[in-house]
Amino acid sequence: MSNGSRPIRPPNLPFVRMVVVPEGADVADDWIAERIARGDICVTSDIPLASRCLAAGARALASNGHIWTADNIGAALASRAVSAHMREMGLNTGGPPPLAAAARSKFLSALDTLAQAARRTA
């Protein structure tokens, strides 16, 4: 998925395709949310997109290995809204920490967990 701002070259694999969407705020997120379905896994650190994917019955995973669930997405959305409000007031919220090397292992393990769960429910 790309809106053209960061060109990528997808691998030449039969189940991989590149989709280019028009420019605009959340256009790529809208494309994903409109097409995601039960059994799909969305890898995103975008909390609103993760919430939309969960609402559609899909699974969502952040790049740091954090699994988004119905139990934790509400608090994440609320925290995001508070941080946005603080930034609007001129306060520095610090932003997310840099991706640590341990996060790669956590991500791969979480992705495997979600893929196995999706396979069992398919």
Protein model, in words:
This protein is mostly helical and 122 residues long. It has one domain (36-121). 45% of the residues lie in helices and 7% in strands. The chain contains 4 helices and 3 strands, in the order H-E-H-E-E-H-H. It has helices at 27-35, 47-55, 73-88, 101-121, and strands spanning 41-43, 59-61, 67-68. Strands 1-2-3 form a 3-stranded mixed beta sheet, sandwiched between helices. It is globular, with a radius of gyration of 16 Å. The model has no long low-confidence stretch (mean pLDDT 91).
Q: Classify the secondary structure makeup into a structural class.
A: mainly alpha
Summarize model confidence as the mean pLDDT: 91
SSE order, one letter for each helix or strand: HEHEEHH
How far the N terminus sits from the C terminus, by CA atoms, comes to 24 Å
* Largest sheet properties: 3 strands, mixed
Number of strands: 3
Q: How many separate structural domains? A: 1
User: How are the strands of the largest sheet arranged?
Assistant: 1-2-3
Low-confidence stretches: none
What characteristic shape results from the CA principal axes? globular
User: How much strand?
Assistant: 5-15%
